User: Which sequence fits this backbone?
């Protein structure tokens, strides 16, 4: 019998052999055709279960997108972001203004969302790090630089936190642009 169960929040399947074993024993004494049908049924159940196990996500690692950062960096980055960045970029890096592309009254740009919904994912890691370190003035913003305030580990951690908010699709687009930079010889430390 095919049994559905949940493992780590995912549907999985296994075969409970108890139900058919008594039928097979009973069938073997009385009707060889019934025994063959039971064996074929078992084979079909096993084949179906194997197919379903292959199609279901019992192993999340198969669908997981490898990211450059660790979970520990994300945890540290969340704290740094909450203390240093959220007042301008929003608690979940969603941005605070309705139109982050519009210039403010003083001509500067609004702090953009960093959660994957704006343009941060278009920037390679060295540029993201440079903006964290030196601020946004070079790009028309008013963000102060944090190079002398945050350690390099905290700088990378804050980037890892907001990148952890990006969908896998956005992260894959970003990582492909990173790979092309590396192929062109542009290197960075991370």
Assistant:
């Amino acid at each position: 019998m095919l049994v559905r169960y949940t493992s780590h929040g995912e549907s999985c399947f296994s075969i409970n052999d108890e139900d058919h074993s008594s039928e097979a024993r009973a069938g073997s004494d009385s009707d060889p055709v019934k025994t063959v049908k039971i064996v074929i049924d078992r084979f079909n159940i096993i084949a179906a279960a194997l197919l379903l196990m292959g199609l279901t996500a019992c192993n999340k690692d198969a669908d997981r997108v490898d990211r450059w950062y660790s979970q520990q960096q994300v945890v540290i980055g969340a704290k740094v972001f909450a203390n240093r960045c959220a007042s301008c970029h929003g608690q979940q890096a969603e941005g605070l203004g309705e139109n982050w592309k519009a210039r403010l009254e003083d001509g500067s740009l609004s702090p953009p969302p960093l959660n994957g919904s704006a343009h941060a994912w278009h920037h390679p890691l060295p540029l993201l790090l440079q903006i964290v370190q030196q601020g946004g003035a070079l790009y028309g913003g008013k963000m102060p630089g944090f190079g002398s305030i945050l350690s390099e580990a905290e700088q990378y951690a804050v980037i890892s936190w907001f990148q952890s908010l990006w969908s896998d699709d956005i992260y894959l687009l970003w990582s492909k642009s990173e790979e092309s930079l590396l192929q062109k010889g542009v290197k960075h430390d991370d």
